[in-house]
Design a protein that fits this description.
By secondary structure, this protein is an alpha/beta fold. It folds into two domains: 2-325, Alpha-Beta Barrel (TIM Barrel), CATH 3.20.20; 351-489, Rossmann fold. 40% of the residues lie in helices and 14% in strands. It has 18 helices and 16 strands. The protein has helices at 2-17, 32-38, 54-64, 92-97, 101-118, 148-165, 195-200, 203-211, 237-247, 262-268, 271-280, 291-307, 312-322, 336-349, 382-389, 404-414, 433-443, 478-489, and strands spanning 21-23, 42-45, 69-72, 74-76, 79-80, 122-123, 168-174, 216-219, 253-258, 284-286, 352-355, 365-371, 394-399, 419-424, 449-453, 469-472. It has an eight-stranded parallel beta barrel, surrounded by five helices. The longest helix is centred in the N-terminal third of the chain and has 18 residues, at 101-118. The radius of gyration is 24 Å and the shape is elongated.
Length: 504
């Protein structure tokens, strides 16, 4: 009888365990058998899911279960999952550099409308991390800057915009990923700051976000010894329940970052880490597109519910909170032309000009563009757009890490030019040696050289000499590349504010 009761309990627990799961999958074929087996509360959609027929995929998911929460990363800038057939907006840092809170709200609104047109419920944005470490390997231009007050102000504006669309914003990554030197996708970062220092910087935007009654937050896979010496935030009851829920008063849904990231899986395993996160207070676990890994998490949570390791009340609690993330009524007045105009306005207002006379003439100018790698669809380069937006100029493309032969070709072309515009790029990882060599050889010609930083805005730190002029766009989206060229041509005067920290 006891065995039968346990079996029956496992069946009921298996039906409940899916309440904590946000699953993902590869490609555009919906894994119906897996969904039927684990009955997840949510699905997170990635760029590989949203290529040929994104709305059709969403319709198939809704046909399976109309109550599924559908999540998407639509931050703008480099983290934009829904890309095909929609306007690609500049990064959070470009928006913040505008200094225009109303603009940030309108972009948050437009991105929320993209989420709703897709048929999804949740935009996993804004990023509320204060990027105080200029060498942060994963945040950078995804952040609204290095000042906690500005991050809070702009993050809330973005979230208010999302709510206007009917989409639900989820701020991330609590308690803060801005002062790390390690990418949590790869390993476990550690932030050794005293509690009072964390309060002044990392926690400040999240306190403001919670006080505003926003519906969702995402955790960070980071160890904060001042808050919990044993567990990273995602697995820490002290942080998620003690600090966030009880002390800060957060009532919304709490999502984990991807549980397959190295910070968690390498150090705490898969299924056991998932159980720790639920016990710590997480309502929804973001799981990797690996069916066996998803099944293992589901089995472990089913066991924990059947044995009473996780009380059944947690299931109802999670469901109640996740209901706050279901899309609501909103207004989406953006025609494609209006979105394009808004993206260009944001890109122009986000361009920072730090030194060098502007404008420059197009004739006699060589524009050297970097072909920045993007596995989900490359953007046009500075050289590609130069003839149109810097009339009379000539363009030459090189790879993101130029080879010695590409450097020679660029120098040869530059000898016939009167001045050179060269793009640089650093966001993930260090500054490429090929870029350094390219700039060094161009500077050696003794001609005016204008550098345009298309990622983190502080590439000047890594250049082998001071260029004649310097612009920063905070991203390489097409509208940002265009905005840089228009600034060089004098179509407008760039007035973006420096928000990165360590101003030149």
């Amino acid at each position: 009888m006891r065995g039968l009761a346990l079996f029956a309990g496992m069946g009921a627990a298996a039906a409940q365990a899916g309440a904590f799961l946000a699953v993902s999958f590869k490609g555009e074929e919906v894994p119906l058998a897996l969904l039927e087996e684990v009955r997840p509360a949510a699905v997170i959609l990635y760029p590989s899911n949203l290529r040929r027929d994104p709305q059709g995929l969403v319709r198939r998911l809704r046909a399976f279960d109309p109550n599924l929460l559908l999540l998407v990363d639509q931050e703008g800038g480099p983290f934009t999952s829904y890309r095909e057939g929609v306007v690609r907006f500049p990064s959070a840092m470009a928006l913040s550099a505008s200094g225009d809170e109303g603009l940030v709200e309108r972009v948050g609104w437009a991105l929320g409308c993209q989420v709703r047109r897709l048929g999804a419920d949740v935009n996993l944005a804004p990023v509320l991390d204060v990027n105080v470490n200029p060498d942060n390997p994963i945040i950078g231009i995804r952040s609204f800057g290095a000042d906690p007050e500005r991050v809070a102000q702009m993050g809330l504006a973005f979230a208010r915009g999302a709510l206007r669309s009917g989409a639900r914003p989820v701020g991330k990554h609590f308690p803060g990923h801005g002062d790390t030197g390690v990418d949590s996708h790869l390993d476990l970062p550690r932030v050794d700051k005293a509690r009072d220092a964390l309060e002044k910087v990392e926690l400040y935007p999240f306190r403001r976000y919670v006080a505003a009654g926003m519906p969702g937050l995402m955790t960070a896979h980071i160890l904060f010894p001042a808050l919990d010496p044993s567990y990273p935030a995602t697995l820490s009851q002290r942080i998620l329940t003690g600090l966030l829920r009880r002390e800060m008063g957060f009532k919304g849904a709490l999502l984990t970052d991807d549980m397959a990231m190295g910070a968690i899986k390498r150090h705490f395993g898969g299924a056991e880490a998932a159980l720790l996160a639920v016990k710590a207070g997480a309502d929804l676990l973001l799981l990797e597109p690996d069916e066996e890994a998803i099944r293992q998490v589901h089995r472990r949570l089913s066991q924990a519910l059947a044995r009473g390791e996780v009380p059944a009340s947690r299931v109802e609690e999670a469901r109640r909170r996740l209901a706050l993330l279901r899309a609501g009524k909103g207004e989406c007045p953006f025609a494609p032309e209006a979105e394009e105009a808004l993206a260009l306005e944001a890109a122009r207002k986000g361009v920072v000009h730090r030194f060098g006379p502007l404008p420059i003439p197009g004739p006699g100018t060589l524009v050297v563009g970097l072909k920045i790698s993007d596995r989900y669809g490359a953007e046009p380069t500075l050289a590609d757009l130069a003839p149109r937006h810097l009339p009379g100029s000539q363009g030459l493309n090189v790879s993101e890490d130029p080879t010695p032969e590409e450097v020679r070709q660029a120098v040869k072309a530059a000898t016939r030019a009167e001045r050179v515009v060269v793009s640089t790029y650093r966001w993930l990882g260090g500054f490429r040696e090929g870029q350094r060599a390219l700039v060094r050889e161009l500077l050696a010609l003794g001609k005016p050289v204008y550098a345009v930083a298309l990622g983190n805005p502080d590439d000047y730190r890594f250049l082998p000499g001071r260029p004649t002029g310097y612009l920063a766009t905070h991203g390489y989206r097409a509208v940002q590349v265009r905005a840089a060229l228009e600034a060089l041509a004098g179509a407008y005067t760039p007035a973006g504010q420096w928000v990165f920290g360590g101003e030149p």
